[in-house]
Amino acid sequence: MKTLEDWSGLWIAMVLAGWFGAGVFFTIAVAPAIFSLAREPGAAGAAIASLLTALHIGGACLFLSAAAAALVARRSRAFRFGLIALAGLCLLSHFGVSRPLAELRERNSASRTAEEAARFRNLHRISVGFFGVIAVGSLTLLVVNRPRTED
Known about the structure:
Oligomer: single chain
Shape: elongated
Number of domains: 1
Helix content: over 70%
Distance between the termini: 18 Å
């Protein structure tokens, strides 16, 4: 019979695998499809931004719920900290990077100054970096989220 500790470990695995899978699917299939179908890059960027909002805010909520489950599942402090750090990275990416990107995107790319264009490219690189770190962190925590073996 499964215990609450077992179910908590399963929830953690589902959250980590779910976010990782969603991130990979977004990167490989969704974003390229949106850019290939959109008539202009600004429209594609706006569509992608709305999807990233779901990944960032949803991810933060799910990672925090997994951190609470990790407490029930008796995972280490380091493991729980990793989940909280992933939630924080999601929020930092959303509020610290995606919002300024959206403000720049609202300006027509033809009317952007060279400084604004450089800032846009830099913020985009940072956004991709955050996304990659969260994905690697999710995968890493998924691998170490093994149930304790009975001795």
